[in-house]
Amino acid sequence: MSVSPLIEGPVRLAGYLLLLLALILRFPQQKADATPVIFIVIGFLFAVIQDIFWPLPSPLQVLGTHVLFFSGLALGWVVARRIPVSRIEKALAFWAFAFAFCSLVGVAIYTFTPSIVHALPSYGYQGTTHHTIGISNLLVYPDGLVVNRNSGIASEPGLFQMVLNLGVAAMLRFPKENFDAFWFFKLGVIGFAIFTTRSTMGLAVFCFLILIGALRSKRLIFGLALSIFLTWEAIWLEATYQQENKLMGSEAFAGRFLPMQTIFSEFITQPLGVGIARYNAQYIEMNWGSFDSFSQVLIRYGFPLALVLSFLLLRSLFETPLSVIVIALTLASQPIWATPLVAYFYFCRRNTSEIKKDQPIAKYQVRSSL
Hints:
The chain is mostly helical and 370 residues long. The protein is built from 15 helices and three strands. The chain has two domains: 11-26 and 33-85 and 254-369, no CATH class; 90-245, no CATH class. The chain has helices at 9-26, 35-52, 59-82, 85-112, 157-173, 181-197, 200-214, 218-230, 232-245, 251-269, 275-282, 293-316, 321-331, 340-347, 362-369, and strands at residues 122-125, 128-132, 137-138. Keywords: Membrane, Transmembrane, Transmembrane helix.
């Protein structure tokens, strides 16, 4: 629900609200700390008040956007009050491997039989048309050419890599039987899936996680050295591609960096944001504030909400450092700050003393809420 493009805005909003209501009614918790939510509500009010006094060409769309963002954050908070981070991360380790394995079916299709992609079921996403096999989405350029990048179950490769890297972070936290053979097999599948996303941020985060893991295991150092030796040519070609097409000095880098730079310049004169309505009227056509979470929050909701979310994420860094680092780095390249999966890590906690009564429902919540 957090990353799939197959669930459109209104359906996604309805799903958030229904799931939120079901969790609250079925699994109430009397002593939940609502302080973070109160500060988030205050942060939202600055934008809502501005929208009230701005001419609204489509008030339902503006209201729906506010509710979608807030319900995603609220759903993350509700789940975090009931499930400790250890359970979530163990689930992420399992699902990251499953999603990575399934995504390789899509990789095989666009690599070896790209001609059949256009015969597969299609879906629309942000004005573009793509194709899917259910377990993997296949992206297509506007001119009809197939994109040779692995987006898995997500809307794009840069988002899919976050799910996979969260799984790697969880695997490093819970190394099964001191890095056994099956652990390395799962890591290899996830690593290959990340490599096929060709996501600059995803590859950088994966390398960081592997280096952290290498400090804990000589087996991982040996496996890393062997992998580099066997795939050196592919690694070199990908590094060259990233340098020429994705990093500083490339057109793709400028296309993302310049709008972000412009938004931060606008933020100096608009520290409280401009709201949803004014953003849609003045900024959305230029794609300002559309490529990353930080500029999106700053231009729409202003410094107060950005400060609250940054503080919450920093606090969670002490609960699960690697996962929060993955989230924070992905926020710099994806506008996903209000999805339930990301929102969970604003509020996550390691201590389970207050949620012992809710532990039997953890399996249900992990599968349905994130």
